[in-house]
Task: structure prediction
Amino acid sequence: MFERLHRCMCETGSFATGMHDTGRGRSVRTPQVEDIMQGVGDRPDISTREVSRAVNVPHSIVWRVLRDEGFHPYHVQKVQALILADCAPRVEFARLFLQQLATEPGFSAHVLFTDESTFTREGISNTHNLHVFF
Result:
């Protein structure tokens, strides 16, 4: 092994052996790729394991196809939409809040801020494990 490394270093100036493309090929049949892409296209929020079961291919193949096709999982984040009319009230609130802090330094400890956008009629929406492929 040391002799091979020494020879490689003398010949190329590097320890790299040049054997980067050895190993078995990673081809996936076209119908499988089409089925996988169809499954994700129909439901972007579907899990890779669900696609794997539906198409009857290993989970790793589904990941490889999605990665090769340029798809990446995105974590869903709920945000409130702001419109131009929201600007003035937000600035006014900030000014009032700063005035209160100036007169009473402990004021912020008595204010409760909540994220009301996560509450629905059906209950609390948990987006922790919700991912979408784009």
Q: What stands out?
A: The beta strands are 73-75, 119-120, 123-124, 131-133. The helical segments are 2-12, 30-42, 48-55, 59-68, 87-103. The chain has a mean pLDDT of 77.
